[in-house]
Each structure stands twice: as C-alpha cells, then as structure tokens.
Amino acid sequence: MYRHLSIAVTCFLLLTSTCFAQQLRLVNRSLIKDSVIHLNKADGPGVAWISHQEFSNGIIEFDVKGKNVLQQSFVGLAFHGQNDSTYDAVYFRPFNFQVPERGRRSHSVQYISLPKYDWFTLRDQYPGKYENEVDTATDPDKWFHVKLVIEFPEITAYVNGKKCLSVTQISTLKTGMVGYWVGNGSSGEWRNISFK
C-alpha cells in the first residue's frame, strides 16, 4: 500500500512541477496558467518573460495557438530581451495562414526588433525581407509547433517541421531574456517550450 501511495505522490509532484516550474514576469498582460500558458488580450504588445532564463544562440521549440480572427492574433516568442521594450521577436499571424490572397499570406510570420524596427517599419523599409508565408496546411485555429534556430546573426523559423522564415537580425542583440509574446489586441497560448 505504501508503495502505491509513494508512486501516486511522485507522479503528482512530477506533473505539477512540470506545469508550474516556470516563473514568469508579466508586462502588459495577465496570465491564466493551467496546463498551458495563456496571455490575455489587451492594447499594446505584451510579454511574459521566463524568469532566470537567458538565451544567446541555439534552438527554442514550443507549441503555440492563436486564432483565425483578422487583426486579433499575433503570437510568438521574444528573445535577446534587454528590458521590457528592447528585444527581438518572431511571431505569427494565424489569420493569414490560409487566406487565398498571396499578399496577405506573405505576412504570416514576422521578425521584429523593438523598439526601432516594428513590423510597419520593416515592411516599409524592407518589403518582403522580414516576413513570409507559412505552409497553408497549418490550421490557424489549432496548435502548431515552432522551432526557432538562432545563431547570431541568423534566425530561421520552422512551423510543423517546414522552414518558413530565414533572416539576418537587424539588431546587434546577442543575448538576453526570453518570453512569450503577443501583439496589440491579441491573446495567445503556449506549451512545451524547450531550449537546446
């Protein structure tokens, strides 16, 4: 009997420590935390910085879920964060994944470097260079898997195993904080983040 109780307690501790091991510092968002990380919708961009997690070069993988609502779903990851307003990020616009217009589809994944190079500045000064389309088989209302390969100054993004973005960082940021990122007016969900 004690053996079964010991196994049950061990399983419970493993499950809860996995779900709640990350300590997050929130910027312009509140957090709903169960088996996933959920950031609420609010004006302006928001970040949930992962406490005690510095990142420079390597691979970050995670699952993310937005929604298929025009201009209301901007979900991704911020990295090389220096503070709450200076960082690089790669994010997705799921509402553009399956649209028939190629122009909109080409705005499905985006690299930014804040505060100087937001999406509108990059699109204006470097059209088509820092954003691209995602494989149209990706369902905008479901979870999708992201792999970011960051080897300064190169950044490559994959969705469900298919390369969708390859850019050279416009910033000189080489190391810093990592956090779950949402854009203006957007909420989002993440799970299964790993670093290599």
From TrEMBL:
InterPro entries: AL/BT2_dom. GO terms for molecular function: hydrolase activity. Pfam families: 3keto-disac_hyd (PF06439). Residues 31-196 form the 3-keto-alpha-glucoside-1,2-lyase/3-keto-2-hydroxy-glucal hydratase domain. Gene3D superfamilies: Exo-inulinase, domain 1. Residues 1-21 form the signal peptide. Keywords: Signal. This is Uncharacterized protein DUF1080. The lineage of its organism: Bacteria, Pseudomonadati, Bacteroidota, Chitinophagia, Chitinophagales.
